[in-house]
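Need C-alpha cells for this chain, all 331 residues.
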Amino acid sequence: MELSEFDYDLPPERIAQTPMEPRDAARLLVLDRRVGSTAHHLVRDLPELLRPGDLVVANRSRVLPARVLGELRGGGQAELLLLRRLGAGRWEALARPARRLRAGDEVKVNDSLRVTIVAVHPEGLREIAVASDAALMAAGTTPLPPYIREWAGDPERYQTVFAETEGSAAAPTAGLHLTHELLSRLATRGINFATVVLHVGLDTFRPVTEADPREHVIHREWFTVPADTASAVRATHERGGRVVAVGTTVVRTLETWAATGQSEGWTDLYILPGHQFTAVDVLMTNFHLPRSSLLMLVSAFAGRERILAAYAEAIRLGYRFYSFGDAMLIL
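Here are the C-alpha cells for all 331 residues:
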C-alpha cells in the first residue's frame, strides 16, 4: 500500500468556500459499492433513498470556540487551536509559531487572560494552562479549515442542528447537511435516528505523510455510544435493516464499539482498505482531501478505485468539495 494511491487532482475552484443554503440543498452523489454505479440527487432526497427500518446515526459533538489568538511576549502573533481538555485549566493545543512557544512561555490573549505553555510535544502540540476555562472559551472563535479563506457567516452554520456535547475542534461535516425538517421526513418514512459522540481532534488537520499509509498513527479521540443507540443498532440489524453512518466519525465510533464492546473511551481506530465493517452498512460522507486518512476510510468502505472514479465524476460535474461542499451516499 502506497500513499500515492490515495491522491487525486482537485481544481481550486471546486473547494466550497460557503455553505449551501438551505443545508439539505447540497448535491448528493449516490454510489452503489456492489456494482460501482452512480446516481445524482440532493441531500433532501435522502428519505426516498433509504428504506423503512433503516437507522441513521449522526455525531452530536459540538465545535468548541477553539481558535484562540494572542500576542507573544517578544512581539508577534500566536495562534492556538484547542484540541481537548485535559483537566481544569489544562488543554492540549496545536500552536503556531511552534518554534517560538517553549515551556514556560506566555501568550497574552487579552488584558485579563494569559496562556502558559506547560509542556512541548512533537508536531506543534503544546500543553497549556489558563486560570479560567470560561475566559478561554469566551476569547475563542469557531475554527474553520485553512482552505476556507474568507467566510464570515453565522458560526452556528458550522454546527449541526443536533450539536449538543461540546468538545470538537472541527465540525463532523456530513451532519451539516441535515435539517430538522429532513429528520422529520425520515421519521415519517419509518427511518429511525440516533446519535453518538466523537470529539473531532488533531487528525482532521494532520495529513498522512508516510509513504506507506500503514505507518501513520492516528491520535486518540473521545467517543460515546449511548445505551439507546447501541440497542437501536442491534435491533436494526436483527430485523434486517441497515445502519447508516452520517460521517466518518460515526463510522469510527460504531466500529470501535463493535470491535471492543466499549461504549465510552478513547479510540485510535485507523481504518484502511482491508478493514471488515461489522456495524455500518451505508455511509453518508463529504468529499475528502487527497492523501488523508478519511479518504482511506471511504476507500476501505467502497473500494479505492470506485471512490476515485466517483471523485473524478464529481469533479467533472461541478460538485463542491470539503467541509462546506456536497456529499456522497455510499450504499
